[in-house]
Design goal:
The chain is an alpha+beta fold.
């Protein structure tokens, strides 16, 4: 794992440029503490910088920026190519490799086959910057599912690219002007979805995309647009035309084969390796297959909380004992978690408010004390149908959509006419006579969420509401007009009659890379820890989409193939329990240990001084949350993380 950065300028003298690229490169030291290097094209004025976290080939033979044998290509690679040794077998036996790094494999494949064919063959996670010395052409590439980040953009006569925004801010000519329209998207989704970023003129490269810039013609170069080399919707349609109606026995054999193949590939490492373990289906499946393929106990890590509603450590410990892993758990207090908050703006570079960022950082820090690489179970929900909205959401929509629009809207108005607090009191009064599966908590919040669903008239509106924190973010972000996104673009939806498939495909293209993978990458890299995600192997994803939805979701439960594979290694009773996220009790903390900190940032004076948000709705929510009338934890965390980030920018 590494950090990459580069820029182009027609203005700077070579001495200043070299000093600047070193400064930008060093901003990424946490992504690569083991080595560093720069390269420049003397004739053109383009410079590359690289920080290396040595994983494969720890010698100087893996040093970057790396030049191909033919001296025509220069490459920066952030990530890992899991099949690079297999690719080397396609070269003549007489080919003289300098070392055993995957970076060398990639650049020589490009020199031999070209970039397009090389990308078709790569299996891994990566962001790549490739410079063609003869053509004066820069290619920027991001892996198919967006595991590795890549920012880029023009600001005046300068072109920038980097793994993280903090490196770009080291350039004296970089303009950190906040894009209010992107900020509006942030308040809807608790992250800024690609292709946008918080800064004007800077974009994120979409997963599975490539940007090619011909610097021989600057006017044309500034107009270059990214194109897709791996279009998930097209891949899914191809998989669906070849649906495999296998018997259950054959399906499970193939599921285990594909998962185990991916796990074995991603266990390739020249440094200590382990895994995150929550005790859930996804992480337990990965750890079980890792342990199957290891003669030593796999090192596993989990974070625990004393609040039983958020603690998964007890489940992880049971699974670890059964599998015989070398397990380490750390129970953290609210003070431990809260101490991380001042560091979050630096870790994430732009506003990001998935509150599970805190335990993700804590478990990454724990793991980094013993290993340099950690595998995780992310991605299983999106491709095998694990989220509650795929089942409960679909059923809710279909049941209420049968009602006439006027009746639905009237029922929705009735639900919100009572406060969540009043709903809770009424529900608790009759809770003891209800069936166990209806004795859920936060009845009032659920009633109001149901009302939001009843006001929607189409499936896509319904999905958008499910994916939204602030429903009308332009009302809170002053002077903004929310950008269109993949979700709001009709042409970006999967062509399918099955709403669950549409939601899964959109989640894989948006929520997964923009939230989940950002959270994991930045948290782990802040600890100089490489994370790998076996579920996001192209083979595993395409296998999952070759299965009819009925073979992924059965009897009201998602991830059926994963469950059955896992039950070969871990008893069902250790796994089966209600699903809940990897979170923290933000709502409670805002009323107690975080109250003073939050009150300061959410005060009218503070919000007016910042100048980006409308104080009125924020203050109203803060009052209602503080006195327990409503639970606005997600909306308020969005505001707090932005204001915390803004304060850190010193703008």
């Amino acid at each position: 794992m590494c950090g990459i950065v580069g820029y182009y300028s027609r203005k700077e003298n070579s001495l200043r440029a070299e000093e600047t690229i070193w400064n930008m490169t060093n901003a990424l030291q946490h992504r690569g503490p083991n080595d560093q290097g720069i390269w420049k094209d003397k004739d053109l004025g383009i410079l590359f910088g690289h920080r290396r976290l040595s994983i494969l080939d720890l010698s100087q033979a893996g040093h970057q920026p790396m030049i191909s044998h033919c001296a025509n290509y220069v490459i920066l690679l952030n990530g890992e190519i899991y099949n690079h040794l297999e690719l080397r077998k396609e070269f003549p036996d007489t080919f003289q490799w300098r070392g055993s790094s995957d970076t060398e494999t990639v650049v020589e494949c490009v020199a031999e086959w070209g970039l397009g064919k090389t990308l078709d063959k790569l299996e891994g996670m990566f962001s790549i910057a490739l410079w063609d010395i003869k053509k004066k052409e820069l290619s920027l590439v991001r892996d198919p599912f967006g595991e590795k980040p890549l920012y880029y953009g023009w600001q005046g006569d300068y072109f920038f690219f980097s793994s993280e925004l903090k490196a770009l801010k080291r350039h004296p000519e970089f303009n950190p002007a906040i894009d209010r329209n992107s900020l509006s998207l942030y308040f809807r989704h608790n992250c800024i979805p690609a292709p946008y970023s918080i800064y004007k003129g800077i974009n994120k490269l979409l997963p599975g995309s490539c940007l090619v810039i011909d610097f021989k013609n600057i006017n044309n170069a500034m107009q270059a647009k990214p194109f897709s080399y791996y279009n998930l919707n097209e891949v899914i349609q191809t998989c669906k035309t070849n649906y495999s109606y296998m018997s259950e026995a054959d399906l499970l054999i193939e599921a285990e084969h594909q998962l185990e193949r991916s796990v074995k590939q991603q266990m390739l490492s020249d440094v200590p390796l382990g895994a995150f373990l929550s005790g859930g289906i996804d992480s337990s499946s990965i750890v079980a297959l890792m342990q199957k393929n290891s003669i030593e106990p796999i090192k596993t890590f989990t974070i625990g909380f004393k609040d039983i509603n958020f603690d998964e450590a007890i489940y992880a410990n049971d699974v670890a004992k059964y599998l015989g892993t070398d397990h380490q758990e750390l129970y953290v207090t609210s003070d431990d978690a809260i101490s991380i908050i001042p560091s979050l703006p630096s870790i994430y570079c732009e506003p990001f408010s998935d509150s599970s960022q805190i335990p993700t950082y804590l478990v990454s820090r724990l793991a980094s004390e013993r290993v340099t690489v950690s595998l995780s179970g992310d991605g299983g929900d999106e491709i095998f149908g694990g989220y509650n909205r795929y089942i409960e959401g679909k059923n809710t929509w279909e049941n209420f959509n049968r009602l006439p629009k006027q009746i639905r809207h009237s029922f929705g108005k009735l639900l919100i006419s009572f406060s969540p607090n009043l709903w809770d009191k009424c529900f608790n009064a009759v809770k003891h006579i209800l069936p166990k599966d209806l004795r859920f908590t936060s009845a009032g919040d659920k009633a109001h969420k149901l009302a939001e669903v009843l006001f929607q008239d189409t499936q896509r509106e319904f999905y958008t509401i499910l994916c939204s924190h602030w429903k009308n973010p332009d009302n809170v972000v002053l002077g903004s007009k929310e950008y269109s996104s993949l979700i709001s673009n009709e042409n970006e939806w999967l062509e399918s009659d099955n709403f669950i498939e549409q939601m899964m495909a959109m989640d894989t293209r948006t929520y997964l890379p923009d939230d989940i993978l950002v959270k994991v990458d930045r948290a782990a890299m802040a600890c100089s820890l490489e994370t790998r995600i076996p579920m996001l192997s192209k083979n595993v994803v395409e296998f999952a989409w070759s299965l009819p939805i009925e073979q992924r979701i059965k009897e009201g439960k998602g991830k059926w193939p994963l469950r059955q594979v896992l039950y070969k290694y871990v008893p069902e009773h250790l796994i089966e329990r209600p699903k809940h996220g990897f979170g923290i009790p933000v709502g409670e903390w805002l009323r107690d240990p975080l109250y003073e900190w939050a009150s300061d940032l959410l005060s009218e004076q503070s919000l007016l001084q910042s100048g980006y948000l409308n104080p009125k709705p924020v203050i109203k929510m803060w009052k209602e949350h503080s006195n327990g009338t409503k639970n606005w934890q997600y909306h308020l965390w969005d505001v707090l993380m932005f204001e915390n980030w803004l304060k850190d920018q010193k703008i």
